[in-house]
Specification:
- InterPro entries: DUF1468.
- The structure is a single chain.
- The protein is an all-alpha fold.
- It folds into two domains: 62 residues; 64 residues, no CATH class.
- The protein has four helices and two strands.
- The chain has a two-stranded antiparallel ribbon.
- A hairpin with a 2-residue loop joins strand 1 and strand 2.
Length: 146
């Protein structure tokens, strides 16, 4: 069986985790019972580093790689989707922004159909609204004006 990732992919993921860990160093961690704003980014950064190193180690041990080129189209789609989300979240709300961002990603995924795109954006929007608006009390709108 061929590996999906190369060892350098795991190191890149670990590097991204280290960058985010460094960026969140000034945030207050709090304690487990009363978590501060730095707890979530630090834990996610640490998990990203661990999984990135795990990917690297497993692929070095296996020494199996997939032939092919770097997926520039997928990378550009992800970056464009994140940038679009950041630009539109305040104007369009969670639901429409998520639909736009997932639609951009669907353009770079060859087998993704429009119905899957709409259903995925509905599910992700519901999860985001439940988590951030209801769960954490963040002042985000679901739709423009709502």
């Amino acid at each position: 069986m061929k590996a999906l990732f190369k060892a350098q992919d795991g190191l890149l993921v670990a590097l991204a985790g280290a960058i985010f860990l460094y960026a969140s160093r000034d945030l207050d961690m709090g304690v487990p019972r009363n978590m501060g704003p730095g707890m979530f980014p630090v834990v996610l950064s640490a998990l990203t580093i661990v999984f990135g190193l795990l990917i690297a180690v497993v692929n070095v041990v296996r020494d199996v790689t997939l032939p092919g080129q770097f997926p520039w189209l997928g990378l550009c789609g992800v970056v464009a989707s994140i940038a679009l989300y950041a630009l539109l979240i305040e104007r369009l709300g969670i639901a429409l922004t998520t639909l736009c961002a997932i639609s951009v990603l669907a353009l770079v995924i060859p087998r993704m159909k429009w119905l899957e795109t709409v259903l995925l954006s509905i599910g992700v929007s519901a999860f985001l609204w439940l988590t951030f608006v209801l769960g954490l009390g963040m002042p985000l709108r679901l739709f423009p004006g709502f």
